[in-house]
Amino acid sequence: MSQNRPFKTLRKQLIDHGLQVSEIRRYVDELRAHRQDIVAELIASGLPPVDAQLGADHRLGDVHTLVAAKIKQVRSSTFAGRHPCLCFSFMPAFSAAASFTVLTMLLATSWHFKIAPRWLGAVSIAAQLILPGVLAILFYQAARRRALARAWRIVPLAVILLSVVWFRISMRLPPEFPGTQATFWFGIVPSPNFIAMTSALILPVVWISWLENKHVRAA
User: Fold this and answer.
1) pLDDT single digits (tens) 98-116
2) Tens digits of per-residue pLDDT, 192-218?
C-alpha cells in the first residue's frame, strides 16, 4: 500500500459492511502504523525505499484480504455474530411475542383490579404501534454492528411483522387471581388490528432504507 488510496478503499468497504466509523478508523490507523514499521525494518535491512514499500504491501495483503480478516474478527467476537440465525430470526419473534404478552398482562391485571388510570389504555395502544418498529430498528442496528450480511439486517423486520400480525393472546381473569388463564396462539386469520400494526412499521422501514442508502453513499 504505497499510497493512501488503498486505505481509503479499505475504509469504504468496511463502512459498507456495517462497521462503526470509530472502529474502522482505529483499524486503519493500526494498519498504517504497522506498514510504516515494516517499511522502516526493510529499509534498515538494506532495501531501497520503493522496494521496502512494495515489500510492506505484500506482507500486509491486499484490500480484500484485510477486509475479510476484519469482518471475520468482528463476527466471531460476539455470540450474535457467530449465530445470526438464532439471534436475528428466532429472537425477534420471541421479543415481539414476549413484549406484547407482558404488555397485555399488565394492562389486563390493572383493569381487573381497577387500578388502571384512564390514560393507560391510550398508552397501551400507542405502545403496541410503536414497539414493533423500535424492535426492528434495534435488531437492524445490532446486525449491522456485527458486520452481518444485509439479509440479516432485514430478516428481523419481516419476522417482527409476521409476529405482530399473526400472534394472538387472550386472557380471562376470574375474581380469584390465582385462577388466571391466558391463551397464546398464532391465528390463521390476521389479527383485526393488523392494518394498524403494519402501518406502524412503515416508519422503521423508511428509516432502515435511509440508513442503508446513507452507508452506501458513504462507502
Assistant:
1) 877 777 777 766 666 666 5
2) 555 555 666 666 767 766 766 665 555
Beta-carbon contacts of 72 under 8 Å, excluding residues fewer than 6 positions away, are none
pLDDT in tens, 51-85: 888 888 888 888 888 999 999 988 998 899 899 99
Distances (CA, A) of 108 to 35, 116, 173: 64, 9, 8
Q: From CA 81, how far away is CA 20, in angstroms rounded? A: 15
What are the DSSP E strand ranges found in the chain?
167-172, 181-186
147, 17 Cβ separation under 8 angstroms: yes
Q: How far apart are CA 101 and CA 182, in angstroms?
A: 9
Grid coordinates in use for 187? 391465528
Q: Cα-flanking dihedrals φ and ψ of residue 181, to 5°?
A: -120, 135
Phi, psi (rounded to 5 degrees) for 125: -65, -45
Taking the domains of the chain in order of start, what are their residue ranges? 5-76, 79-218
